[in-house]
Amino acid sequence: MFACFSKLIERDGRFSLEMFKDLSGEQFFAGRGSLQLIAEKWDLLESVVKAISDRWGGSIGALVAQAEGDAPAVASLIGQTIPGFTDSPHSPRGVLPFQKLAQLATSMMSSGGFKRFNNIESLPVFPDYMLPRVLRHLGILEYSKGLAAAVDSRQVLRAGSLGELAMRWGTVHAADELLQALRESGADVTTPQLDFALWEAAVLGPEADAMGEHHRTIGLAY
């Protein structure tokens, strides 16, 4: 996804929502690699462009201004008003407010071209498929026998299934406990910093190849 946006910007030397009017999904996602759900991703991208244009006057800066630069408020507005960013599945224990993509977008904007948002440290980690992997490897998460067998044999877990939700929620809870322990020890760590450290360990770290399988779920939430 990042490569597709990068190629688009490099080709035109600019970026605006108007660029998408003359594009198709096949043009935008053109490349030699494989990408799942191309049609669904393009439909979603078009709806994101429309929401930013119609609801926020073509600028995500208007959303940030309404949220007054408060990170949880920014993430909440993204989740409420931009299609594809709502990630609050129902579970037997109630609604699970993951909001992974909304919170990740908030964190990236805060570290990018916008002034650093307030309360960025109050966001939870961003539960995807690599963080449960590293937490399991470290012995922080323990899967049930059936779930472990499904993950290790690369079975596709249905989005919203109990096992998938349990891994993601366990990740949020475990990382929150870890964050509190780090802060109590005197470490000045934000949630995005901890999230990136865990993700980097799972993907690029020296033990990454020995961490076993990550879970596989087909969907657009993360």
Descriptors for this entry?
single chain, 222 residues, mainly alpha, 10 helices, 2% strand
Radius of gyration (Å): 18 Å
Shape: globular
Q: What multimeric state do the chains show? A: single chain
Fraction of residues in H or I helices: 40-55%
Task: Tell me what portion of residues adopts beta-strand conformation.
Answer: under 5%
Low-confidence stretches: none
Number of helices: 10
Largest sheet: 2 strands, antiparallel
Provide mean pLDDT, rounded. 91
Structural class: mainly alpha
Listing every helix as H and every strand as E from the N terminus to the C terminus, the arrangement reads HHHHHEEHHHHH
Number of distinct beta strands:
2
Distance between the termini: 12 Å
Strand order of the largest sheet: 1-2
Outline the secondary-structure elements.
Elements: H1 2-12, H2 25-28, H3 38-56, H4 60-66, H5 71-81, E1 90-91, E2 94-95, H6 100-111, H7 131-137, H8 145-152, H9 162-184, H10 191-203
Antiparallel strand pairs: 1-2
